[in-house]
TrEMBL record:
Family matches, as SUPFAM superfamilies: CoA-transferase family III (CaiB/BaiF)
GO MF entries: CoA-transferase activity
Listed InterPro entries: CoA-transferase_III_domain, CoA-Trfase_fam_III, CoA-Trfase_III_dom3_sf, CoA-Trfase_III_dom_1_sf
KW Glycoprotein (keyword) present: no
Domain of life: Bacteria
Signal sequence range: none
UniProt keyword annotation of Transferase present: yes
Protein name from the UniProt record: CoA transferase
Lineage, opening ranks: Bacteria, Pseudomonadati, Pseudomonadota, Betaproteobacteria, Burkholderiales
Record keywords, A-Z: Transferase
Length: 404
């Protein structure tokens, strides 16, 4: 849905985004979707590299249209003192500053977050990096895939005995971004009491590790090192992907005690459903191969659709593995507003993901397309008090860039 600028639960919140690519910009996008005024600072010339990542339409990544919607773009050469002074002016009036450079980069530009907070005591600064701002690994370059590996996720995403694989998207960056947004909202809430901002330190690997469920306590208590489980959910039975007659897979989660009995009845295996030894999860885990074989034999004689229809009638959680083509054609996605239409500058329509989460009274929305590089440089600099003559001089010296 489209909304007018200045609406949403975060309307009036001023955010400076100094990150690039995924983690920092995703955090800022989430705030912008809910009404925050996000000023994105990009280097002159090519801007954020994400503008040119993956598939391009009219010279610009369609990913960019999602990641930078609702933002304003200011092009500054942060290597120059005059650009650094502009950032200080912006930070002095901002509520939030987001950055995801390697630790020490801001300090190298004379933009130490602690000093920015001293100058604006209400400022909340989110710092996202591979390994955090402290510790022996702080200076190492860290991308999402490295954080996923160190956080324990990559070891689990494989078929047993095969090479661990990516989950298919930059999940480490996104998890770090979402943890960053949580940190920002908590800091802003606390600011209402204290009147003071603070610095939030999010490490990619820690954001991933925070989602690793019982991984560490199992090791601590039992010395158990959880290994890759392929499509199954290790220690929980039955829960797996089962091959169907049309070559597709049905995901079936029959691991609740009552659900398991209904599943066994539906596939004609009441003997397994009524077996006292399989009445709870502990017993089913011991015989998971036998149970999976029974379910697999049943699904192989039916298409994915047939399997899902039967299981829906008896209340067993199940689903198909969606491709993006499935997503784009799905009526539930459409009904929930998750297939949002936006009009590009050339007049063509582009389908992009809708807004998450859904708020009943103050929902988020899109009020502005992703900006061209430097599209808002002049306007933002005027807002912090620069004159037309000063702006023109900065352009002449290559400190700033505005949209032609």
């Amino acid at each position: 849905m489209e909304t007018s600028q200045g609406t949403g639960p975060l309307a009036g919140l001023k955010v400076i985004e100094m990150g690039q690519l995924i983690a920092g910009p995703f955090a800022a996008k989430t705030l912008a979707d809910f009404g925050a005024d996000v000023v994105k600072i990009e280097p002159p010339g090519a801007g954020d590299p994400l503008r040119n990542w993956r598939l391009l339409k009219n010279g610009t990544s369609v990913w960019w249209q999602v990641q930078s919607r609702n933002k304003r773009s200011v092009a500054l050469d942060l290597r120059k003192a005059e650009a650094q002074e502009i950032v200080r002016k912006l930070a002095a009036e901002a509520d939030v500053l987001i950055e995801n450079f390697r630790p020490g980069a801001l300090e190298g530009w004379g933009l130490d977050p602690q000093k920015l907070v001293e100058a604006n005591p209400r400022l909340v600064v989110l710092r996202i990096s591979g390994y955090g701002q402290t510790g022996p690994y702080r200076d190492r370059p860290g991308f999402g895939v490295v954080g996923e590996a160190m956080g324990g996720l990559r070891h689990l995403t494989a078929e047993p005995g095969r090479v661990p694989v990516r989950v298919g998207v930059s999940i480490g960056d996104t998890l770090a971004a979402l943890h960053g947004v949580i940190g920002i909202l908590m800091a802003l809430h606390e600011r209402q009491r204290s009147g003071k901002g603070q610095v939030i330190d999010v490490a990619l690997y820690e954001a991933v590790f925070n989602c690793m469920e019982s991984l560490l306590p199992e090791y601590s208590a039992f010395g158990a090192v959880r290994g890759p489980g392929g499509s199954a959910l290790p220690g929980i039975a039955p829960s797996n992907a089962y091959l169907c007659s049309d070559g597709g897979y049905a995901l079936i989660a029959g691991n609740g005690d009552s659900i398991y009995k209904r599943l066994m009845a539906a596939i004609g295996r009441e003997d397994l459903g009524n077996d006292p030894a399989l009445a709870n999860n502990a017993g089913r885990v011991v015989r998971v191969d036998e149970i999976d074989a029974a379910i697999g034999a049943w699904t192989k004689a039916r298409t994915v659709t047939e399997v899902l229809e039967v299981l829906a009638r008896v209340g067993v959680p199940a689903g198909r593995i969606y491709t993006v083509a499935d997503i784009a054609a799905d009526p539930h996605y459409a009904a929930r507003g998750m297939l949002q239409q936006m009009r590009l500058e050339d007049g063509e329509m582009l389908t992009v993901p809708g807004i998450v989460p859904k708020l009943s009274r103050t929902p988020g929305g899109q009020h502005r397309n992703a900006p061209a590089l430097g599209q808002d440089t002049d306007a933002v600099l005027r807002e912090v008090g620069l004159s037309e003559q000063q702006i023109a001089a900065l352009k002449e010296r290559g400190v700033i860039q505005a949209k032609a």
